[in-house]
Amino acid sequence: MSSFYTLVIGASSKIAQAAIQQFEAHPDCLGVFAVSRSLPPETATSKTHWLTGDYTEQAIDKVCKEIAPYAGKITKVLVCNGVLHDDSMMPERKLEDIRASQLEAMLHTNTIIPMLWLSKLLPLLKGEHATQIALFSARIGSISDNKTGGWYSYRASKAALNMLIQTSSIEYARRAKNVKLIAFHPGTTDTPLSKPFQRSVPEGKLFTPEFVASQLLFIMNNVEMNNKAAYLDWNNQPISW
Ligand SMILES: NC(=O)c1ccc[n+]([C@@H]2O[C@H](COP(=O)([O-])OP(=O)(O)OC[C@H]3O[C@@H](n4cnc5c(N)ncnc54)[C@H](OP(=O)(O)O)[C@@H]3O)[C@@H](O)[C@H]2O)c1
C-alpha cells in the first residue's frame, strides 16, 4: 500500500479511537484527520489533526475546506457516528414506546449526519487512488434479517442509512469510480453505546474496540473495488440488505 491520509468522523467513538491509534502506528499513514464534537484525547499523537465541529452543514463544509489541500490523498474514511440511548431515551420495546422526538434524534445522528458527509466528501475523495468509506451501520438495519422486532428508531435509522449508502454508491460509481462504500457492522463491541445491553451478550461475543478496528482496517484493505456498496460484518461476511 502506498502512503495515505485518513479521515475519521465521530472520532470520540471508542472504535474510532482504536482505529486512529492503529492508523497512527502505520508507517505508510501520513496523517489522520479526526472530526468530533469533543476535544482530542490525551493519547492523540502529532500525526492526528483534530477538528471539532457539531455536524451542521456549515460545520461539515468548514472541515471539508480544511482538508481540501489533501483531496485525492485521503484513501480511508470512517464515519462512526451513532446513538442508541442517552439519558432521555432507550430502545423501544413496544409500539406504545414510540416517541417522535426519539425517531427524529436517531434519524438525525445515525442517518442524516453520515449522509451529509457522503454528499460533501465526493469531490475530495474522487481520484486515482483506491479509497474506501466505512459507514458504521449495524446488522439490526437489515430489513430481510429482522426476526425479533423492537428497537424501532435505531433499527429504522440504520436501515435508512443502508438505503442511502446503496443509493449513493450508484452515483459514486459514475462520479468517483475509485471509491468503495461499506456499510459496516462491528458486532457487539465494548463501548458506551452497548454498555446497558452487555449482560445478555454470550461469552466471547463482546469485542474490544481494538479487535474491531483491526478487523475493519483489514476489510478496507482487502475489499473488492467493484463500485458496489458492500454490507459487511466484523468477520468480513456479507449481510443481506
Ligand atoms: N458498540 C456496538 O456494540 C455497536 C454495534 C453495532 C453498531 N455500532 C455502531 O458503531 C458506531 C460507533 O459506535 P461506538 O460503539 O464506538 O459508540 P460510542 O463510543 O458511544 O461512540 C458514539 C459515536 O456517535 C457519535 N455521536 C453520539 N451522539 C451524537 C450526536 N448527538 N450527534 C452526532 N454524533 C454523535 C460520536 O461522535 P463524536 O466524536 O462527535 O462524539 C461517536 O462517533 C455507531 O454508529 C454504532 O451505531 C456499535
As laid out across the biggest beta sheet, the strand order is 3-2-1-4-5-6-7
Mean pLDDT: 97
CATH class: Alpha Beta
Low-confidence stretches: none
- Architecture, CATH level 2? 3-Layer(aba) Sandwich
CATH fold-level name: Rossmann fold
- In the CATH hierarchy, what is the superfamily? NAD(P)-binding Rossmann-like Domain
Distance between the termini: 30 Å
The SSE string, one letter per element, is EHEEHEHEHEHE
Bound molecules: NADP nicotinamide-adenine-dinucleotide phosphate
User: How many H/I helices?
Assistant: 5
Radius of gyration: 17 Å
Instruction: Please report the total strand number as a whole number.
Output: 7
Helix amount: 25-40%
Tell me the strand percentage band.
15-25%
Major sheet summary line: 7 strands, parallel
Based on helices, strands and strand pairing, what is the structural class? alpha/beta
Estimate the global geometry from the Cα principal axes: globular
The tally of structural domains comes to 1
